[in-house]
User: Which sequence fits this backbone?
């Protein structure tokens, strides 16, 4: 017992963590986001990104999409703990690699540069559904939708074309095909 | 048009409809309209505590000993924050509580008003759910929903925060409609296939063990009866967690005693070596499992629990049965009796060598201690208390520490709901107010708080409550002048550096009892102990019993931190036999 100066046991074997997208349907009431987020922080779970908005105005249902990393055991716990919250209706869980699910994030890029660079910037965005939302003779704002890592690398690579500001959302997700999650 | 009621009236109408007979509380500015209404509702009796934490623990004691939800009523700000410890305690130990808090008027919320705090924010992580009532028309529905959430599924505390202006406003009273579908939170999800699988495992097991917990108690007295039936029908050994004590008779031969950090040698070794573990309503807490990687390495594990998030949280199990213990056991017994008649007889030979092994562990007599004629050994005090009260159907509460473990080890419980202790949160100061709640629920019964002198000082002011309501609770203090469990860990793990664990200026508990207007009794020697206990039991008033015990005694057996179940530290008697000197013991 030489070095075990603790009333608690030690951390056991660790499993490998994976990235999951967790979708939660909740009653859109006061404090509901705090309940969900508080559960994550209180139990030491991790939130990479978060997107939330009401999706059903009639029944006041909001849809929260959370990107998190955790071992299979932790992800299972997250789902089970979420389901225990009173305002939670259902919880879906997708792995990032899942081919049957579409994940998208949106980003707004502001470029300040000469015309040549602005054109090049737009050109580099063309694989990610670029939309020019604002344009002056020395700046523009481009909206793209893409995966997280794509936006990550874009925001790095576009610096050279005068990227001065980035604003981006959390991921939202939806299954492919005709099926919906019940 | 139906009658309009004020918010305060609606609160009480809801409590009436929920058959609440007692509430524990403390008035203050933001709940005055509710207190004003109290006089008009004769069926509800208010118990005035001396601190809101006391109200919470008293409500817990009430709930644990009756199976009904406990209700507390406190004011905003400090009233609410003082109740937080009790709410957290109830959350950890799955005790149904409904906490009603006053709040500053809605137009002042967010302005840092006098006695304002973000009550729902503060209590969000320590309640199953909470509500801030912003519209008088929602009040009745929320109140009833609060009781529903507190008492269904895995029970727990809830909180309803009612701003003062809402308490004055008027609305119609909506009657309580019982909801069939509990917002998807009801969890009787098991199938016959699960049960068949369980019975298959039972019939194959050569080294089985039942590991039972507080879930059995929470499922009601019927669940304890069913558990007994199943345990007898299988002939399997059974061990229990701290919270589960009483769901199976402790003096029965099949019972191996409590398991875990201070559990018996036989229970922990049986858990380590078993080939089938049937967890009924327990949660694989870290004080139970010890080192998780070496926890019961060779067993198939079955987990029966009402809370799906308890499954595979700490320990991966082979068969999960999610449901109320009572309904799971009912189905199991039905199937079992049909398919396995006379199982315990026919199966006897299959598990006979297992029982032989258990007897060998038992013969270690791990709860033995070295007696003394000069000083009262704390274990001896509990043993004598048990012997002198065992025919009285006593209700025992405890504080937290060594005395709690000694009580769990040496006081034998044969019925559920007789044992109230703070297990999950380990709240010192729980036992005295809890005893008040128990005595309120069971006015004619003997209620004893087995206490430590350090713990009991944390909520000592509630003696005043006991005196006010003539509650003849008995506070049985094992006084060793130390925070005993802290001192034990310091002795074993911190080179006897007894940093701040000695209380140098303790009050005279006998004089203190007199000051509160109750009775003080002191026992100093083993010789006089029995007489003094009898004197205490004969006194029909609250008693503080100051039992001066051995100051150095440690609580054994013990699984040291980070060790598996089969590496227990046994008591000094066993160590003496093995000729380990006092010095060597600290190195074990």
Assistant:
């Amino acid at each position: 017992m030489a070095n075990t100066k603790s009333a608690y046991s030690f951390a056991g074997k660790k499993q490998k963590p994976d990235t999951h997208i967790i979708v939660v349907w909740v009653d859109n009431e006061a404090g509901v986001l705090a309940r969900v987020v508080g559960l994550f922080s209180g139990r030491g779970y991790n939130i990479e990104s978060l997107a939330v908005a009401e999706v059903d105005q009639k029944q006041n249902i909001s849809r929260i999409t959370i990107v998190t990393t955790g071992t299979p055991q932790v992800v299972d716990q997250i789902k089970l703990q979420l389901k225990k919250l009173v305002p939670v209706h259902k919880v879906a869980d997708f792995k990032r690699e899942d081919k049957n699910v579409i994940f998208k994030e949106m980003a707004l890029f502001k470029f300040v540069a000469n015309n040549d660079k602005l054109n090049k910037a737009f050109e580099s965005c063309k694989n990610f559904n670029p939309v020019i939302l604002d344009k002056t003779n020395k700046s523009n704002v481009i909206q793209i939708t893409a995966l997280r890592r794509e936006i990550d690398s874009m925001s790095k690579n576009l610096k050279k074309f005068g990227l001065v500001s980035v604003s981006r959302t959390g991921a939202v997700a939806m299954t492919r095909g005709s099926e919906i999650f019940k | 048009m139906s009658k309009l009621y004020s918010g305060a009236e609606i609160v009480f109408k809801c409590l009436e409809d929920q058959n609440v007979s007692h509430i524990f509380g403390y008035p203050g500015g933001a709940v005055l309209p509710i207190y004003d209404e109290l006089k008009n509702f004769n069926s509800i009796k208010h118990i005035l505590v001396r601190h809101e934490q006391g109200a919470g623990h008293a409500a817990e004691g009430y709930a644990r000993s009756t199976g009904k939800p406990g209700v507390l009523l406190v004011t905003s700000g400090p009233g609410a924050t003082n109740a937080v410890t009790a709410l957290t305690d109830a959350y950890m130990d799955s005790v149904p509580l409904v906490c009603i808090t006053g709040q500053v008027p809605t137009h002042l919320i967010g302005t840092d008003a006098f006695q304002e705090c973000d009550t729902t924010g503060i209590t969000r992580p320590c309640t199953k759910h909470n509500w801030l009532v912003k519209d008088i028309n929602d009040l009745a529905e929320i109140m009833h929903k609060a009781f529903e959430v507190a008492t269904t599924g895995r029970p727990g505390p809830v909180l309803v925060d009612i701003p003062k202006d809402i308490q004055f406003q008027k609305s119609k009273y909506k009657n309580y409609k019982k909801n069939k579908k509990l917002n998807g939170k009801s969890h009787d999800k098991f199938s016959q296939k699960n049960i068949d699988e369980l019975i298959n495992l039972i019939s194959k097991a050569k080294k089985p063990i039942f590991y039972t917990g507080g879930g059995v108690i929470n499922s009601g007295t019927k669940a304890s009866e069913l558990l007994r039936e199943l345990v007898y029908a299988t002939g399997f050994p059974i061990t229990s967690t701290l919270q589960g004590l009483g769901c199976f008779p402790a003096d029965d031969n099949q019972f191996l005693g409590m398991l875990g950090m201070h559990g018996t040698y036989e229970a922990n070794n049986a858990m380590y070596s078993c080939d089938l573990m049937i967890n009924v309503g327990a949660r694989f807490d870290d004080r139970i499992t010890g080192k998780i990687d070496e926890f019961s390495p060779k067993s198939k594990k079955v987990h029966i629990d009402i809370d799906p998030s308890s499954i595979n949280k700490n320990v991966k199990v082979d068969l999960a049965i999610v449901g109320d213990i009572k309904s799971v056991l009912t189905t199991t017994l039905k199937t079992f009796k049909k398919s396995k008649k006379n199982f315990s007889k026919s199966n006897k030979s299959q598990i006979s060598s297992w029982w032989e092994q258990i007897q060998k562990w038992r013969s270690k007599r791990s709860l033995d201690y070295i007696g003394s004629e000069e000083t009262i050994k704390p274990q001896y005090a509990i043993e004598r208390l048990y012997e002198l009260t065992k025919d009285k159907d006593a209700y025992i509460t405890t504080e937290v520490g060594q005395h709690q473990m000694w009580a769990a080890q040496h006081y034998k419980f044969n019925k559920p709901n007789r044992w109230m202790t703070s297990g999950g949160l380990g709240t010192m100061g729980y036992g005295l107010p809890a005893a008040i709640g128990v005595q309120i629920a069971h006015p004619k019964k003997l209620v004893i708080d087995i206490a430590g002198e350090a713990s009991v000082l944390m909520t000592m002011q509630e003696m005043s409550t006991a005196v006010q309501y003539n509650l003849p609770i008995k506070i049985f203090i094992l006084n060793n002048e130390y925070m005993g469990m802290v001192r034990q860990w310091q002795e074993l793990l911190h080179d006897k550096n007894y940093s701040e664990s000695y209380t140098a200026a303790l009050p005279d508990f006998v004089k203190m009892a007199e000051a509160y207007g109750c009775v003080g009794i002191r026992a100093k020697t083993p010789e006089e102990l029995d007489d003094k206990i009898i004197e205490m039991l004969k006194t029909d008033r609250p008693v503080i019993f100051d039992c001066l015990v051995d100051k150095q005694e440690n609580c054994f057996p013990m699984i040291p931190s980070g060790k598996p179940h089969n590496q227990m530290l046994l008591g000094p008697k066993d160590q003496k036999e093995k000729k380990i000197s006092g010095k060597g013991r600290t190195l074990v």
Observations:
- Residues 378-548 of chain B form a domain with the Rossmann fold fold (CATH 3.40.50.970).
- The CA atoms of residues 73 and 486 of chain B lie 34 Å apart.
